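Example (one chain per record):
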Amino acid sequence: MTGNGKNHEYICSVEAAINEIGGKWKSLVLCSLKDGKLRFNEINKKLPDITQRMLTKTLRELERDHIINRKVYPEVPPKVEYSLTPKGESVLPILDALCEWGKEYCDNKVYQES
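Predicted structure:
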């Protein structure tokens, strides 16, 4: 589905995959969660260039698409943790391969290990 609630037929499955994990921040959020559960501020510290608004939007989209879990603990102050679902974990080898591809073919670009 698209953001306006209408069904969208994809020309190819790559388009569907990129729709789920593409964009500037989704892959970076997924990489930040690869080592385990994190709270909102912990993710934000790993990605200092993302605004809180954009991080919230990205987390909601990933949760909506069942790529991450959001667990709220019933305590005061509220505690919320994010973690990868099995679907999210299945994306990690793809992101690792993209990382390696970037190292090999984007050598003129500045990059930082996640």
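Caption: The chain is about 50% helix and 10% strand.
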